[in-house]
Amino acid sequence: MIESMAIWLPLDVYYEWPVLLPWVVRDPSCRGNPAKGIPDAWGSPNLNGYLRDDNSLIKTLPRSLVVRTPVAGRLRGARMGSEFVAAHVWRVVKHAQLASRLPLLNSFVPNLVWLPAQIAKLTDREESVVQTTLQSMAFAVYRHAPVAPHLEEAVTEAWALIPDQLPPPRPISDLNWFESTQQFFANRSHRLQSVVAALNALSDGATLTTKVVTTRYTSGLPGVAAEARRELLNHLARFLND
After folding, report:
1. Contact 153/238 with Cβ under 8 angstroms?
2. What is the pLDDT of residues 91-148, one digit of tens each?
3. Closest CA to 118 of 160, 87, 163
4. How far is residue 69 CA from its own chain's centroid?
5. CA distances from 85 to 7, 59, 62, 191 (A)
6. 99: helix, coil or strand?
7. Mean pLDDT across the stretch 196-225?
8. H/E element holding 26?
9. What share of the chain is helix, strand, coil (3-state, %, to 5)?
10. Residue closest to 13 by CA, chosen among 56, 54, 68
């Protein structure tokens, strides 16, 4: 059963960090094409200042967390191995772009699930049993779960992009969960603050003296248009807990 294979992020993560990497967007072209002479540009900013990722940053997010399961088995108490990969629950949404190409949905907790690699591939098949089952499960888990007050506007905007609810899944108590830690939350906060600090520094006319996420992102961010950097800063400000 899909339910016994999938691993989800818990509700306390959703409450505090419903969008885990709001400065990151998926861009499959970022790895380049040696045959065509296109260099690898992973970790560099796009024209709007978002870090270009090929899913590498997302798939490793819960690697430090142990898994909690409802029944005994090899997953209980284990950490995610290389056989599990991150998958996006929704692909086609209420937007011309795919969900992973939208910074608000790319790392939106309800849109993420970790699955065995071979099963994860099936999530890209529109309206397949795997995809629709995961979508209904994500709805049941997260749709009406609370988030921190300062995040409600961004979360409402994210859900507005997602298609309507599907038939209900099996009980939530049957699902597997990553166990969150304070260090996990601290890492999310530190990374967000580093990006925001870099954008503020550039706005003030300063130069970047420390690495911001990746070396390419650090060197490329000053070249992003000032207006795009301001828009990115406004977007990220919604995720700050002042």
Report:
1. yes
2. 999 999 999 999 999 999 999 999 988 888 888 888 888 898 899 999 999 999 999 9
3. 87
4. 22
5. 10, 6, 11, 22
6. helix
7. 96
8. strand 24-26
9. 45, 15, 40
10. 68
